[in-house]
Design a protein that fits this description.
29% strand, seven-stranded mixed β-sheet, Spore Coat Polysaccharide Biosynthesis Protein SpsA, Chain A, two-stranded antiparallel sheet, single chain
């Protein structure tokens, strides 16, 4: 049986990106959007798509993401940026992993784009980032959002890319 999980997204004025981000995450049991004062239609769009919208003044990237993770109702959380998309392959792998997780956190090899072109050189690919984690592990929160070196025993990279 699959473990329930949430997807969290932090935003400010992301109306151009938020529909695609949320639509790529709708397979999750919950999508939580933490907004820091958008003056565009970000929150309206998110609510229409079924996301839980929370307003929180800007705390800084790490603290804002920590806040979003703590606002999720499920223990397992996937952290998604508004300009990212969960690919079909990544969705399949997330669902497989959540059948029986072996680790406390999983990183994604992100494929970055610059002016519409994939960047696979210059040390920018793979760009590993911890994205799926069990929320209750406090040391992983520090690891994820304060750029502490990765602890190999707690991490496992996904085999697929997160399309940015």
């Amino acid at each position: 049986m699959q473990i329930p999980f949430s997807v969290v997204i932090i935003t400010k004025n992301e109306e151009r990106n938020i529909s695609d981000a949320i639509n790529s995450a709708l397979f999750a049991d919950e999508v939580v959007l933490v907004d820091s004062g958008s003056s565009d239609l970000t929150c309206v769009i998110a609510k229409k798509l079924g996301a839980k919208v929370i307003h929180q003044k800007w705390l800084g990237f790490g603290s804002q993401k920590n806040y979003a993770v703590s606002a999720a109702k499920n223990d397992w959380v996937f952290v998604l940026d508004a300009d990212e998309r969960i690919t079909t392959d990544l969705r399949i792998e997330i669902l497989q992993i959540l059948q029986k997780p072996e680790f406390k956190a999983y990183s994604v090899a992100r494929l970055n784009h610059f002016f519409g072109k994939k960047i696979k050189y210059c040390g920018l690919y793979p760009d590993y980032s911890i994205r799926l984690l069990i929320e209750k592990v406090e040391d992983l929160m520090r690891l994820m959002f304060t750029k502490v070196f990765k602890q190999k025993s707690l991490l496992r990279p996904f085999r697929v890319q997160c399309y940015i």
